[in-house]
Amino acid sequence: MSLTGKKALVTGASRGIGRAVALKLALEGADLIVTATSLERAQKTAEEVSRLGRRAIPFKVDVGVTSEVEALFQLVTSEFGSLDILVNNAGITRDGLLMRMKDEEWDAVIDVNLKGTFACTREAIKLMAKAKSGRVVNISSVVGEIGNAGQANYCASKAGMIGFTKAVAREYAKRNITVNAVAPGFIETDMTGVLSDSVRDELLKQIPVNRFGSPEDIANAVYFLVSDLGSYVTGHVLAVNGGMHM
Ligand SMILES: NC(=O)c1ccc[n+]([C@@H]2O[C@H](COP(=O)([O-])OP(=O)(O)OC[C@H]3O[C@@H](n4cnc5c(N)ncnc54)[C@H](OP(=O)(O)O)[C@@H]3O)[C@@H](O)[C@H]2O)c1
Question: Is residue 94 a contact partner of residue 109, using CB atoms and an 8 Å limit?
Fold first, then answer.
């Protein structure tokens, strides 16, 4: 197990991609803090991690609220004392056409997806810089690269995560910290479960491999970046999208 002894934090780990990432890191030997907006949901993933023989601490946090992120990192410090891996996965959508998009819909998406990534990374980097070692992976999206009608707020947040990733990668490369983004295409989770059959059929026509991805497809990419295999990769956006954008 190549991540034995590593301490990892995965945000939004109750379901979908975050849950799959948490289980993959645990399978490879990492101990974890797993978060969600509900303690019960975070606990469910923590129990699954424990069944794999790893330590797992559940925590309730809204990553869009800086004081809650600070409380999360107090836990990281008291329980782990250091942090090897941060996966900024928590994310939401509030879709709508631009003309009708409300300020609250814009703010909610930017706060969770982009400001949450900033706040968690800022705290994590303090620990990683001290240790002169660390791995950060930000879960962006293919639509942050190519855009998507009806998702101006979400696309802006995901494109922002890519710029953020590259800036922080340059800032901390000398401290042996890598910072990368994974840009998933359309993945089978609750987030895409709301799409109608006709929208799914249209999307499939744009995906050369002719299927939606699985959360495990993304977890494998994250694992590559946080393991020794990815040690010379930083500031990169790893597309995991079935060829939807190349
Ligand atoms: N699914 C896709 O096709 C796809 C494609 C590209 C990128 N992504 C990105 O991948 C990430 C995971 O997506 P998913 O499809 O797995 O989503 P999901 O099934 O909807 O799960 C979202 C996760 O984020 C957590 N979360 C939501 N709001 C939060 C907040 N304010 N603070 C902290 N955690 C919060 C949720 O916790 P609760 O259970 O407590 O709500 C849940 O664990 C997101 O960043 C998403 O944008 C997904």
Answer: yes
